[in-house]
Structures are given as structure tokens and as C-alpha cells.
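hey
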């Protein structure tokens, strides 16, 4: 049985050896390179970079993005349930619909909470 794992062990040893060798060569040969301000500056399509590289966004942008991701993931959970609803209803009866109604109710409460907190209000 252990002889079956021998190829895996060899592959792990080779992968670790390659990573260590690559990093060691990078450190050895990287130190010999000459550094100056031009080489250390950011390369931006041949143009000299002016200003900050990343513009600042409002926190509202991130709030809306997070809410979108959260509610989008919840819809992903609803889709397989909708596809299998007939089989679920046949086996579990009204409990299948009640469980999804409770899930959708919690989502509705979360959405109303986000609206009340002003998370989707862009003007404030």
C-alpha cells in the first residue's frame, strides 16, 4: 500500500525542491541587479505616473457591492430549490414551501433593514 504513494511523494519533493530552488536563485541573482529610481518607479505604459494609482471610492459603493453579493448568493441557493420543488413537495409536502418562504422572509427582513439604514441611498 505505501508503494502506491511513492509517485505522489516524488511529485511533492520535486515541487518543493523547484519552489525552493527558484526562490533561492531569485534572491542570489536579484541582489546583484543595480537599483535606481527609474527602475523602482511604477511602469505605466511608458508614461511617467502622475498622482495616486487608485482613485478613492465612496463607502456607499462598497456597501451596495456587498449587499449585491449577499443577495445574489441567496438567489443562487433558491435556484436549485426551485428546480427540485416538485420532488420536494411530493416527499415533504407543504414543509418544502414553508421552509423557502421562511428563507425568503428572512431575506425580505434583511432588505428592509438595509433600506431603513440608508445603505442604498446614494444621495446621503
Amino acid at each position: 500500500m505505501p508503494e502506491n504513494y511513492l509517485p505522489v511523494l516524488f511529485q511533492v519533493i520535486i515541487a518543493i525542491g523547484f519552489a525552493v530552488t527558484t526562490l533561492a536563485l531569485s534572491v542570489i541573482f536579484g541582489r546583484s541587479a543595480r537599483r535606481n529610481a527609474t527602475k523602482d518607479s511604477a511602469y505605466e505604459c511608458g508614461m511617467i505616473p502622475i498622482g495616486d494609482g487608485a482613485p478613492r471610492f465612496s463607502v456607499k459603493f462598497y456597501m451596495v457591492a456587498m449587499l449585491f453579493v449577499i443577495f445574489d448568493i441567496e438567489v443562487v441557493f433558491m435556484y436549485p430549490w426551485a428546480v427540485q420543488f416538485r420532488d420536494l413537495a411530493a416527499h415533504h409536502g407543504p414543509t418544502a414551501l414553508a421552509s423557502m418562504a421562511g428563507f425568503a422572509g428572512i431575506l425580505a427582513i434583511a432588505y428592509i433593514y438595509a433600506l431603513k439604514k440608508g445603505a442604498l441611498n446614494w444621495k446621503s
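The chain has a mean pLDDT of 85. Residues 22 and 28 are 10 Å apart (CA to CA).
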